[in-house]
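Reopening this one. Same input as before:
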Amino acid sequence: MPIEIVAQSRKTQGTGASRRLRHAGKVPGIIYGGKKSAATIELDHNALFHALRDEKFHASILTLKLDDAVEQVLLRAVNMHPWKAQVQHIDFQRVSADEKIHMKVPLHFVNAEVSPAVKVSGGIVSHVMNEINIRCLPADLPEFIEVDLAEITIGHSIHVGDLKLPKGVEVPLRAGENPSVATAQIPRAAIAEEEEAAAAAAGEAAAVAGAEATPAASEVPAVKQQAKPEAAAEEKKGGKGEKK
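Same output, byte for byte:
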């Protein structure tokens, strides 16, 4: 079902007028594109703020009811207050049924839990992208692009070229460009634990090898000490005296 939003033409312009609109619970905006000239608009803040929380609002053809007319538009820009939950300004672009549009749509990742990377190797899957830029006719605009992770293994990635795109949808890339969408790796903590365990095992092996190479004290042969020449001469002289 198309998402509808209601707006009114804005009669006054300028910084002061926009500030007064915000104080009155309104959001200043603009609608442009197509064969019509740009028009300044105003919208109810609360209704717009809640609509912006819906993912579909950011990647769908919207039905904008402006005064007594209806426009098919895309959300193009939203300016938020630096610290308040307040929409400061919003831009919409008109779309034509026969003209292709460029749009960023979200990526939905599925089946990571049954992939060999996670189920067999205990790894994790990291999302390199969360949205992707596509080109298509308005009627072919998808709400999201699905990324199937069922076959991903450790050390490998899913690339844009691996995605199954809906009919009529293409991803504009430069020649030779094929960026990663998701990668599978072993967690760093697990790698550190394996390295510590390997280092400990190597230390134990070295200690055992050293102990085996060193003979026990009982196995060391006694070394016969030779008397010094002076001591031997004294011993010989003393022996002769006793015979007298």
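So the earlier flakiness isn't reproducible anymore. For the record, The chain has a mean pLDDT of 85.
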